[in-house]
Write a structure and sequence with these properties.
11 strands; 2 domains; alpha+beta; CRISPR-assoc_prot_Cas5d; 41% strand; antiviral defense; RNA binding; EC 3.1.-.-; seven-stranded mixed sheet; endonuclease activity; 4 helices
Length: 217
């Protein structure tokens, strides 16, 4: 069964992995980010969300934001060593000594309609698709979620509503080649990133067709 979720927000940043220093957003929401929003509303090991189409409802606009951030973090090895030794002396981070200013090229005033369905997994047991369909429908209708969904980063919250018909689009430029975009992470294959050629036609990115054409690692 397919669901349509209207998602919107004031800002969004779907970070391009090739940008190492400053955060630069893709032009539109990535399929993995869209999947994360569905999972924030309802997810169990019994199901796996698959994004079918992304409707871009508003013009693509960017805005540069400068923020103070912590420039480093305690490494996992240091934390593990301290835990093994049972001594946490020195295991701290002084924010004032690690603060730095970074720029983010984010999207402004975004609105998407996401079409998605879920598939049952080997963990389903006695669960049925009807059970999870009803659970998702009830939670999405009442605004329930396991954690607050976001538009790429936690600072940019996502608002959502379950819809039957798409909201009106204000998109002026509907056909556009968006270049190579991250599709998702292949967790079954050493967390390898998968990419696809994103083409927006009539304001829609058709991921069913993309999967048929093949993804690139």
């Amino acid at each position: 069964m397919s669901f349509q979720l209207h998602i919107w927000g004031d800002h969004a940043c779907f970070t391009r992995p090739e940008m190492k220093v400053e955060r630069v957003s893709y032009d539109v929401i990535t399929p993995s980010a869209a999947r994360g929003i569905f999972e924030a509303i309802h997810w169990k090991p019994a199901i796996r969300w698959v994004i079918d189409r992304i409707h871009v409802l508003k013009p693509i606009r960017f805005e540069t934001i400068r923020r103070n951030e912590v420039g480093s973090k305690i490494s996992a090895r240091t934390a593990q060593s301290a835990m093994n030794a049972g001594d946490l002396t020195g295991l701290h981070l002084v924010v004032d000594e690690n603060r730095q200013q970074r720029a983010t090229l984010a999207l402004r005033d975004v609105s998407y309609l996401i079409e998605a369905h879920f598939e049952m997994t080997a963990e389903a047991g006695g669960d049925t698709p009807a059970k999870h369909s009803e659970m998702f429908r009830r939670r999405a209708t009442t605004g329930q979620c396991f954690h607050r969904p976001c538009l790429g980063v936690r600072e940019f919250p996502a608002w959502f509503e379950l819809v039957k018909t798409p909201p009106p689009s204000t998109l002026l430029e509907s056909d556009r080649d968006l270049g190579w975009m991250l599709y998702d992470i292949d967790y079954a294959n050493r967390r390898a990133p998968l990419f696809f050629r994103a083409r927006m036609e009539g304001g829609v990115i058709d991921l069913v067709r993309v999967r048929g054409e093949g993804l690139r690692a």
